[in-house]
Design goal:
heterotrimer; A alpha/beta; B mainly alpha; C alpha/beta; B: mainly alpha; Cytochrome-c3 Hydrogenase, chain B; 17 helices; disordered N terminus; C: alpha/beta; 9% strand; elongated
Chain lengths: 170, 410, 160
């Protein structure tokens, strides 16, 4: 990573108890969950990272400590810098603070985290499911949620699948 | 998986609508998932004061396909077929983003011929996507002939894609390491015929719309967005360039050799629907420039990497070489392993920044593949842009943000 | 049809009631706009000048189900959208037909997972399935021609 990004990463490592790393030229910063709101604010106000490019999560089940990593991608447009921030979250129903006050577009991203992973976002103005129907049970992108593969109806098993496949009455 | 029956009452959305709606002063109207002007299955809950939109609440998810979870169940090469269908107007762009991410993750080289052809096709795909945008946007604003002209030209591009890959839309032509197969004879003539003929078509479309008083009336000063709002809300692509900020990933973070091409990034200042229209019309011309340069410089050489640890050998080799058979067997049954690391690769799609976050776990299947899709992020600003506009203006604004529901819902 | 030789130029044609009714139905079968995903783009492409569908009487794509006869389900049907599809089908007045366009609508297509209904024939009765991912506009027109033949073969017992 280039020197400007290096200084920013070192500054954040010092102030927010975080740890930087690099892979193939892409910088990544591991920030504890309690510090993410402050770190996001510092990135926007002091270091010029004005855009939240992406926000998602990775599920490391069956490992529980941490089980999830919330992954933020920040972009500094004037200086052409990108930074990834990872927040490790423990347990099956973890809580994550919302950064939608600092970056307004985090609103839908965090709703998606709740919907797909079950990460409870605190201080979110409108935490509802976004992609699945409102009455859906479960969080689909978790690793212990099944893919939902249905057996395909070929000619050799046509009759037995026809019995259990729902068909409209009219 | 069980589905619990939960009673959804209007209390769930109480915090989103204004108090005037609860008293009955304003009307709540559903612009349902099936609607001719929403460009797909988008549901909008409109709070209307007469014809004026007080608030607009988008409800997405009607096209959620679970592509990310499906990708986790397939190997890296086979998962690419899933990627075409995200933003189905920019299929080759999706393939490009995915291939770049895989190549970055496993450190795979791409020969120069493949990089040039990738740029050529990505720009042709950009033209095709903007043609659909123009056709449907104009159709919503009641200019129906533009729809027919645009789709007619789009068929020329689809013919070129079919010539190379066999498929009109879901091509999966780019593969990790290069291309699936080399371009056939007749490719160069077909592309040259298209780019020689197309500039006058763009002039036709501009002649029909750009100074048309009805079009100007419906698009000037509608849905104004400033550059600061755009950056704060994560808007990218032509929607942000219509507000004055020249942010284009092909210039900022070039990929696949884009730094070698000469082109401009069109920028408009007003930030209204007309500005975004103007930016996309100029992008037609700039994309043609890039296609012409790519076609002129097309080098000879291999079309896919030779690294047999990741790229299957051609079928002709299987008859003569034992290693080729072993590589073929391993790659098609098990797949190639990726390191335990993650990459994020952004590309410039016709809608904005399309980013692929790919994490490997040492095995042959992606552990997590997250798609940062531009339409999902760009759609969030719709309530803000459409405040105090008429319902008819809302249709123009949705068209100008250029969303594709496959992109929003994944 | 022997009467014509006697009646000749009086301008009278004899046929069956089924023939006339089915001819009328196939002549101007109005499709309802139900494009969901990628197949919708190919459906719009078949409406476009190169593969014109208005030669078959389908120039108008009605957005309202109350005014349409044919529902072309073009694209993947997610579980959130399924109740909407059924409701729109119920709102169409008889006679109505359904063409399932594309692999995702016919059988779930590429996606065999929690989010996609494996075939719209779990929700609505389908008359013609058109395969392809997405089907070429010519394939869709072939499907519509097949539907027209099916409609011409309908008997009075079925709809009277």
């Amino acid at each position: 990573m280039n020197s400007a990004l290096q200084t920013i990463v070192q500054d954040l490592e010092k102030n927010f108890a975080s740890k930087g790393s690099e892979f193939h030229g892409q910088a990544s910063l591991l920030v504890p969950p309690g510090q993410i709101v402050a770190a996001a604010g510092a990135l926007r106000d002091q270091h010029g990272f004005g855009m939240l490019a992406a926000l998602s999560a990775v599920d490391y089940w069956p490992q529980r400590q941490p089980r999830f990593h919330a992954v933020y991608q920040f972009k500094n447009i004037p200086q052409k810098l990108r930074l990834e921030v990872r927040v490790p979250l423990d347990g099956d129903e973890p809580e994550l603070a919302s950064i939608s006050e600092i970056f307004p577009n985090a609103n839908w991203h965090e709703r998606e985290l709740w919907d797909m992973f079950g990460l409870h976002i605190t201080n979110h103005p409108d935490l509802r499911r976004i992609l699945m129907p409102e009455d859906w049970a479960g969080h689909p992108l978790r690793k212990d949620y099944p893919l939902g593969y249905e057996e395909v109806q070929f000619t050799f098993n046509f009759a037995e699948i026809e019995q259990r496949k729902p068909r409209p009455k009219e | 998986m069980t589905i619990q029956q939960v009673e959804i009452t209007s209390d769930e959305l109480r915090h989103l609508v204004s108090s005037r709606a609860l008293e009955g002063e304003t009307m709540l109207l559903n612009m349902g998932p099936q609607h001719p002007s929403t460009h797909g299955v988008l549901r909008l809950l409109l709070e209307l004061d007469g014809e004026t939109v007080v608030n607009c609440i988008p409800d997405v998810g009607y096209l959620h396909t679970g592509i990310e979870k499906n990708i986790e169940a397939k190997t890296y090469e086979k998962a690419e077929t899933m990627t075409d269908r995200l933003d189905y107007l920019n299929t080759m762009g999706n393939n490009l983003a995915y291939c770049l991410a895989v190549e970055k993750l496993v450190d795979l080289d791409v020969p120069e011929r493949a990089r040039v052809i990738r740029v050529l096709f990505t720009e042709l795909q950009r033209i095709a996507s903007h043609l659909v945008w123009l056709g449907t946007h104009a159709l919503d604003l009641a200019a129906m002939s533009v729809f027919f002209y645009c789709f007619n030209q789009r068929e020329r591009i689809l013919d070129i894609m079919e010539m190379c890959s066999g498929q009109r839309m879901m091509t999966t032509y780019f593969r990790p390491g290069g291309l699936w197969r080399d371009v056939p004879a007749g490719f160069e003539e077909a592309v040259r015929a298209f780019i020689d003929d197309f500039p006058r078509r763009v002039d036709d479309y501009e002649g029909l719309l750009s100074k048309n008083p009805i079009f100007l009336d419906r698009t000037k000063n509608i849905g104004v967005m400033t550059a600061e709002e755009g950056v704060a809300w994560g808007i990218t692509g032509p929607s942000l360039r219509g507000s004055g900020l020249a942010y284009d990933l092909r210039k900022d973070e070039p990929y696949s050799g884009y730094e070698q091409y000469e082109f401009e990034v069109p920028v408009a200042k007003e930030g209204d629907v007309y500005a975004r229209y103007w930016v996309r019309m100029q992008e037609f011309r700039q994309s043609l420039r890039i296609v012409r340069q790519a076609l002129d410089r097309l080098p000879k050489g291999p079309f896919r990497s030779n690294n047999r640890k990741f790229v299957p050998p051609p079928r002709a080799e299987l008859g003569t070489s034992m290693e080729a058979v072993i590589h073929h067997f391993k790659l098609w049954t098990e797949g190639f392993p990726a390191p335990k690391a993650s990459v994020y690769v952004p590309v410039e799609s016709p809608r904005g920044e399309l980013g692929v976050f790919l994490e490997g776990d040492g095995g042959p299947k992606p552990y997590r593949c997250y798609w940062r899709t531009p339409s999902f992020v760009n759609l969030q600003i719709l309530p803000k842009l459409s405040k105090n506009h008429l319902v008819a203006d809302l249709v123009a604004i949705i068209g100008s943000i250029d969303i594709v529901l496959g992109d929003v819902d994944r | 049809m022997g009467v014509e030789s006697k009646l000749g130029n009086l301008g009278i044609v004899t046929t069956t009631l089924e023939g006339v009714v089915n001819w009328g139905r196939t002549g101007a079968m109005w499709p309802m706009l139900f494009g969901l995903a990628c197949c919708a783009i190919e459906m719009m492409g078949s409406q476009a000048p190169d593969y014109d569908m208005s030669r078959f009487g389908m120039e108008l794509m009605r957005a309202s189900p109350r005014q349409s006869d044919l529902m072309i389900v073009a694209g993947r049907l997610s579980r959130k959208m399924a109740p909407v599809l059924r409701r729109l089908y119920d709102q169409m007045p008889a006679p109505k037909w359904v063409v399932s366009m594309g692999d995702c609508a016919s059988c779930g297509g590429v996606y065999n997972n929690y989010a996609i209904v494996q075939g719209v024939d779990e929700i609505v009765p389908v008359d013609v399935y058109v395969a392809g991912c997405p089907p070429r506009p010519e394939a869709l027109i072939h499907g519509i021609m097949t539907l027209h033949e099916k409609v011409r073969g309908e008997k009075i017992r079925d709809w009277a």
